[in-house]
Write a structure and sequence with these properties.
81 residues, globular
């Protein structure tokens, strides 16, 4: 994933919350913006966190069983379902 906007690290609290959601296979509602600033929302299961080239990503499986990779600083909100 190449993004024109420089990565902004997320808080340790947010990172820890994702780790717990992954450990417990918790379903969430997730809202984020893509590289073109389009807003998205989906129901998903966080599967892993990944760091690549100094950027952090959430790997997830959505309700259509599609796997996605979302840069953490693009996530606007999330909540357990």
């Amino acid at each position: 994933m190449s993004d024109n906007k420089p990565y902004t690290p997320v808080s340790c609290d947010m990172h820890s919350e994702f780790e717990l959601l992954i450990m417990h296979n918790t379903k969430i509602k997730l809202c984020w913006q893509d590289e073109q600033e389009n807003k998205h929302s989906s129901i998903a299961w966080p599967k892993d966190l990944q760091t690549k080239s100094g950027e952090e990503f959430l790997l997830l499986t959505d309700e259509n069983n599609k796997q996605q990779k979302i840069r953490l600083d693009r996530i606007q909100s999330f909540e357990k379902i």
